[in-house]
Design goal:
This protein is of the alpha/beta class. The chain has helices at residues 23-37, 56-62, 89-94, 105-111, 115-127, 140-144, 148-159, 189-206, 209-214, 228-232, 249-259; strands at residues 12-16, 46-50, 68-72, 99-102, 131-136, 172-175, 217-220, 239-242. It is built from eleven helices and eight strands. The site of phosphoenolpyruvate has 14 residues, from β8.
Amino acid sequence: MIIRRAFMRKPFIAGNWKMNTDMAGGVELARGIVAGVSGIAGHSVDVAVYPPFIYLSEISKALSSSGISVGGQDVYFEEKGAFTGEISAVMLKDVGCVRALCGHSERRHVIGESDELINKKVKAAINGGLLPTLCVGELLEERQAGKTEEVVSRHVTKGLEGLCSERMPAVTIAYEPVWAIGTGLTATPEQAQEVHAMIRGLLAKLYDQGLADEIRIQYGGSVKADNAAELMGQADIDGALVGGASLKVDDFVAIIKAAE
Ligand code: PEP
C-alpha cells in the first residue's frame, strides 16, 4: 500500500503490448486483467492497455465497462488521406481508444521519429480527443556522458511545444530510460525519482507549479511485480508504463495492486 502524497495524482498503470499477442491471446489477456482488477481499475488506479492496432476493436469490446481504457501504441498527426500504413486519432477513437502513446523509445530509436514529429502527434492526439502519453528518456551512452537532463529536457520541451496550459491536463509523461526498457535493468528508485522531479520542475517552468503538480509522470523500464511498489513509492512517480510484464495477467495485476 502506497502512502499518497500531498498532490493527489491518481496512480496510472499502463501496459504496452508492443508487437505481441494474437487476437485470441490478446482477448484472453484482457479478460484476465479485467477479472484481476475489478473494483480497482478506474477507481483507485487508472489502468490502460495499448494492444497492436489490428486487435484494438476486439480488445475494446473485451474491456467494455471494466474501467480499463484502451489506447493506440502510436497515432499519426493527419486526420485522413494518402498516408499509407498510418492510423489517425479519429480512427483510434472509432475503435474504442481514449489514449495514444507518442514517442515511445522504439519509435524514436528503431523507426527514427524526431521530436518535431512526436510533437505533431501529441497535438493531433489531443485535437482528436485522445489522451496522449509523451514518452521521454535517455540512451545508456547519454546517461554515461552525463546528458540525461539535457536529453530528457529536450524531449519534454520539444514534445510539448505549442501546447497551451488548458490542453496540458490531457497529457501524461512517461520517463523511460532506454537502457532499462526490455533489458531487465531498472533505474533505482532514486535514479528514477531524480529525473521525475527534474521533469516536474521543468513543467513548472514551462507552465506553472499548479499544472506541474497535476500532471502524472509514469516510470517505465523493466517494471515488475517485485520492484513496482518501491518505484511508485517515490514522491514524483505516479505510476508505470509496463512492457514485458504487462503480457502476463498475474504480473500486470500485481503491479496494478502495488499502485493502490
Ligand atoms: C515499454 O515498452 O515501455 C517498457 C517499459 O518495456 P519493459 O517494461 O519491458 O521494459
